[in-house]
Design goal:
The chain is of the alpha+beta class. It has one domain: 4-Layer Sandwich (Glutamine Phosphoribosylpyrophosphate, subunit 1, domain 1). The protein is globular and about 45 Å long.
Length: 340
């Protein structure tokens, strides 16, 4: 357990930074285990709304079942994101968006808030669950990120099962790509259109008070070959630190990269803001500073959580103490009791 002892302000070239000085104190009381997931912040059409909500609810329950069995936050976020990657409704793993050449390029990150260990992959083509490959990068290499051919070679070297890339492409995605491939726009216009769809992610805190995050995506439809957004970048698409909390971001990747959104949210929390206020302030700043829209899910070490977005919709769900919360539209927060 971390107890704040005192706060001091320091002047770094005119920038005042408040620093918390921590004293570690052991405590036997179990922390409240929580998992929160999102299925992407974008203009989710009505015909995908129910499936999107059902998908995040199932993924949140999957992640929480790991925590309930005594599993770690890291295990929980991997399990939840794998469920989303396996669901063709979402843009990650199966159901991923296609680039300008009609190819799949997948990105993912996972991070352990206890040690700050992180693993990421980008532009991988034939891996059904890139979040698990990202975890392997974290645990089996001295690196944080592997990309493209190198990531696939690593996957092969450790025996990760590959799949034919075409099996990751849904009929719906192929049809939408064919419809819009001649429509020349920038990535911002693509993101803001009804036919763009986005990232998935999860955050969790376990009974030991450790936090973790994971984020996975197929990117944005019609992106340039080799384009990498925020999702696999530490501090942008996700960040986890036991001292402050865990975040997974979603939205316009280039905007999220510019403001390092995940780390920005946690910096507000470190300054004393609530998880919800920190998220709202950061999303508002991104909108005002670089005209970017998006969303974020956040959990603190104490179990406080938030799901916030500035897009039209974001499918999200959270489970704490056998209570399921979920929503899709702004200010929507529905409660459902889970069976014991």
């Amino acid at each position: 357990m971390y107890k704040y002892e005192f706060r001091e302000s320091r002047d770094y070239g005119g920038v005042i930074v408040q620093q918390e000085h921590l004293k570690i104190r052991k405590r036997s009381v179990k922390m409240t285990a929580v998992v929160v997931v999102h299925g992407g912040a974008w203009a989710i059409p009505d015909d995908l709304a129910k499936a999107s909500v059902d998908g995040v609810k199932a993924a949140a329950c999957e992640g929480f079942s790991v925590l309930k069995r005594g599993g770690s936050a890291l295990d929980a976020v991997e399990s939840a994101v794998k469920a989303l990657e396996d669901n063709t409704v979402f843009n990650a793993g199966h159901g991923a968006a296609l680039n300008m050449e009609g190819e799949v390029e997948l990105d993912a990150i996972i991070m352990d808030g206890r040690t700050l260990a992180s693993g990421a992959v980008s532009s991988v083509k034939n891996i059904a669950n890139p979040v698990s490959l990202a975890r392997a990068v974290m645990e089996k290499t001295d690196h944080i990120m592997l990309t493209g051919r190198g990531a696939n070679l690593f996957a092969e070297s450790i025996g990760v099962v590959t799949v034919p890339t075409h099996t990751l492409v849904t009929q719906y995605e192929r049809k939408e790509w064919e419809k819009h491939k001649g429509y020349v726009t920038g990535v911002m216009e693509d993101f803001n259109s009804q036919w763009a769809h986005d990232t998935v992610g999860a955050v969790a805190v376990d009974c030991a008070g450790n936090v973790a995050c994971a984020t996975s995506t197929g990117g944005i439809r019609n992106k340039m070959v080799g384009r990498v957004g925020d999702s696999p970048i530490i501090g942008c698409g996700g960040y986890a630190d036991n001292f402050s909390g865990a975040v997974s971001c979603t939205g316009h990747g280039e905007s999220i990269l510019k403001v390092t959104l995940a780390r920005l949210i946690l910096s507000h929390i470190e300054q004393g803001k609530s998880v919800e206020d920190a998220s709202q302030l950061s999303l508002r700043y991104m909108g005002e500073r670089v005209r970017g829209a998006g969303g974020a899910i956040v959990v603190s070490q104490s179990g406080r959580w938030a799901a916030t977005f500035s897009t039209e919709r974001m499918a999200w769900a959270a489970v704490e103490q056998d209570v399921l919360w979920y929503g899709l539209d702004p200010n929507e927060r529905i409660k459902e009791q889970l069976s014991q």
